[in-house]
Amino acid sequence: MAPLIEAVGVSKRFPGWLGRESTLALAPLSFAIHSEQPAVTAVVGESGSGKTTLARLLLGLAEPSNGEVKYRGRDLRRLDSEERLAFRRDVQAVFQDPYGVYNPFYRVDHVLRTPVRRFRLAASRAEARALIAEALRGVGLRPEEILGRFPHQLSGGQRQRVMVARALLLKPKLIVADEPVSMVDASLRATILSSLRKLTDEHGISILYITHDLATAYQVSDSILVLYRAHVAEAGAVEQVVTAPQHPYTQLLIAAIPRAHATRDWLAQDGEANLGDRARTSKGCCFADRCPHAASACLEAPPALYRTEPRRAVACVQFRQHPALSAGDFSAVVSEQSASGAEHRHEINPSNRLTRRRRLSC
Amino acid sequence: MNAAVLRVEGLRVSYDHPLGEVRAVDDVSFSLRPHERFGLAGESGSGKSTMALAVLRSIRPPGRIDAGEVWLDDTRLSSLSDDAMRKLRLAGIALVPQGSMNALNPVLRIRTQIADALADHGTTLSRREIDARVRDLLGHVGLPPAVAEMYPHELSGGMKQRACIAIAICLRPKVIIADEPTSALDVVVQRQVMATLARVQQELGAAVVLVGHDMGLMAQFVDRLGVMYAGRLVEVAPIAEIITRPRHPYTRALIASLPSLEVRGALTGIPGLAPLLRDLPPGCAFHPRCPQAVDRCRTEKPPMRGIGGAEVACHLA
Question: Using one digit for the tens of pLDDT, what is the confidence trace for A16-36?
């Protein structure tokens, strides 16, 4: 069966303006999300790394410059109206700003009732009400505390969870969540992320979690894609990538997270100041100018993606002894089922998922 | 006699609201030694940013400072005229604001913005002296001299934040208040900016108040931390003490809510919501969310008391 969503050699380049050079927002990339294997995939990167561009391409909000995004095997640009409606229902989005998505003049009921009406989810008003209440309970909200209120009467965390409930209402197969917790307090982050994780574990919905925060990505996701300046630096099972990063950029990212430890070595490790302004090359590795291990080979040609483990790929020449992935195709590395090493899969998967499901409640 | 460079005593800030008075900062006291890095942590709405503004006497109506004093060395800030206070901001206490994106004037070059700050505080310099000063300041924060001739939109977020630090230190203040200086930056740039702030602080011999909610950042940067909840300080202690032995249940929850990079599946939030400041629960404001609350917490407001090097406002500590 065709995957739910498939990116085939997708890239995005924004044209130059007034004689400026064009900007590569996303280098060619391929991967697939299968509806039979619900999982949380994190896309991590700094601002400008291309992670939101990837989300917009998968949602059909932007057109790829090259390659195509396929929904159940059909190019997004060539869906007929029926398929388009199905796509809009199967693939939902939760955006960053829980303040900007509401119209302040409408009660919050409005954002929940509209999809029910548009997608004809309910035959009667009573049925609609029951559906909405169920979706709200699904994300840990009490309908009687939410319905009938105006957006400004809810907290940021409540508003963001109403957006998750709205997505849940449509029983989608995939939710693309673009920085869903970057604007809410640390104390609420855990609650929202747990409601997202529950959608995968209990409702079988896949989630593409886009974030700049590696620590939350580590907590909720199964696989991870680390983007740097439009290119994938490292991808694979989250456990391996975060606990033993191989790409120098991933290593830098993880070392730069300030930890709540009594040992204070964070500021002292800021080694980047010593690197100076090394030239940025357009033909070599995009990380070469900041990389502590950069060699002359890094400045000449961009590195291939080397499959260092069954479920990990790294774009760094240090790993050139490993087989290279063809055309940036991550499907095998990112999704669990298609990974070749079956015994490996069992090793990392079931126990983890179970313990997490138990502990994530709060 | 007093070794503290900044002393805050019983500060109380209220906002008038149609539904009643909102007390954003309630009876907050702390002091800062020279060269010290002090952190103020708490959720949004805990009063930490209001606190920072109140120290600068920059609270605008409908807000007002009801009670309390702020001392900078031997100067009582409430005794200063508005004009003297305006001069003291930046020269004595400088603010590095939250969201460097919006703090700089988009239509002025960085050079002009630094020169404005100098001129406004009575520094008369020739054009050449200003150029030298600007170059020197940019060098201090690790920016190339070319940045002087650039506009804010030509700079990255980290560079803008460093330009703000350059402005903040241009008159060699004794205290730098940094209000979530890195909340909009990614982790790698955050570390560069914090390293810059640490370096200029040492060169200047200034004290720093870091306002924020990231306990990881606090653990790595400050010497002493004050935790605020619902407008009050609930715990003040040396940072190593707080990280290894948090005494207030809220401090514990704040540390636990930080997603771990070592243990997976240990993601815990703080249950419940922060209380409405105009309708605080009786007793300890944290009791509705506190896992250990007992009857006494519901009726009696816990006073701040010293327990082995820490100050804690909790009946159970």
Answer: 777 778 888 999 888 888 888
